[in-house]
Design a protein that fits this description.
8-stranded mixed sheet; Rossmann fold; ProC C-terminal domain-like fold; alpha/beta; 11 helices; 2 domains
Length: 273
């Protein structure tokens, strides 16, 4: 299997599915994708001869046998969407699911115990190639299929692999939802600036640029921990220390984040039911 002849069936071409598809096309990771989505998502790829957009699984090309079936629909839509593709999956494809909460066992029950399945959780910065995905394979996935899934996920950024599937729920809670936590921090910083007298536009620009710059500084400082980077900004008895005294007090941000990630992990496991 080579980079230039890989065929993909993409089920769901919303924000995440569309982001991955854009990355595959940009990087030449696939030869062709058939994107199934009843909404307008595939419209962004109109005119690209490598993408065939269809509205339902009933419209697939006759005899289509993709190398990988990527499931990118919302968990709540899975019951109606996924069973349609049993025959396609049975033609030898590896299933790569990025649906939150849906376990490998769920897809083995749906498509058969002999089906090679990779469960992965990317995040929305994949849209700009700065995301991170964590994946876990079942025992049926070959080395070649794992390499293929790794290459497709790399279109959105970094990729890590684990062997314990239960960790995917924690990944979902940490990095899957993580961008929303960062955006909330941005909102809160801007709101604090406005409350202290800044205009809304200036407060948001300061918050947005500060969050983006701090994140890039962390990426470019792999030898320093987040704790050390925080300390580098914090002068004893200075203004930052005064703010951190509030944020890090009992029940503050560190405690809240532990509780938040625990709540999201529980919800991810509930979605498996």
């Amino acid at each position: 299997m080579t980079t230039n002849n890989t065929e993909v069936l993409l089920i769901g071409c919303g924000k995440m599915g569309g982001a991955l598809l854009a990355g595959w096309l940009k990087g030449g990771a696939i030869a062709r994708a058939v994107a199934v989505d009843p909404g307008p998502g595939p419209d962004a790829f109109a005119g690209d001869s490598r993408v065939l957009a269809v509205k339902s699984g009933l419209d697939l090309p006759a005899g289509f046998a993709p190398d990988v079936v990527v499931i990118a629909v919302k968990p709540q839509m899975m019951a109606n969407a996924a069973p349609v593709y049993r025959d396609i999956v049975g033609r030898g494809a590896v299933v790569l699911s990025i649906a939150a909460g849906k376990t490998i066992e769920h897809f083995e029950t749906l498509y058969g115990a002999a089906t090679p399945i990779v469960r992965a959780m990317p995040n929305t910065p994949a849209a700009i190639g700065r995301g991170i995905s964590v994946a876990v394979p079942n025992a049926r996935v070959t080395a070649e299929q794992r390499a293929l899934c790794d290459r497709l996920l790399q279109a959105g950024g970094d990729v890590e692999w684990v062997e314990d599937e239960q960790l995917i729920d924690v990944v979902t809670a940490t990095s899957g939802g993580g961008p929303a936590y960062v955006f909330l921090l941005m909102e809160a910083m801007a709101a604090g600036g406005v409350a202290a007298g800044l205009t809304p536009d200036l407060a948001m620009k300061l918050a947005r640029t500060t969050v983006a710059g701090a994140g890039e500084l962390a990426v470019q400082s792999p030898g320093e921990s987040a704790e050390q980077l925080r300390k580098n900004v914090t002068s004893p008895n200075g203004t930052t220390q005064a703010a951190l005294g509030v944020l890090m007090a009992e029940g503050g941000v560190p405690d809240l984040m532990v509780r938040a990630i625990a709540a999201a992990t529980r919800r991810s496991r509930e979605l498996a039911d």
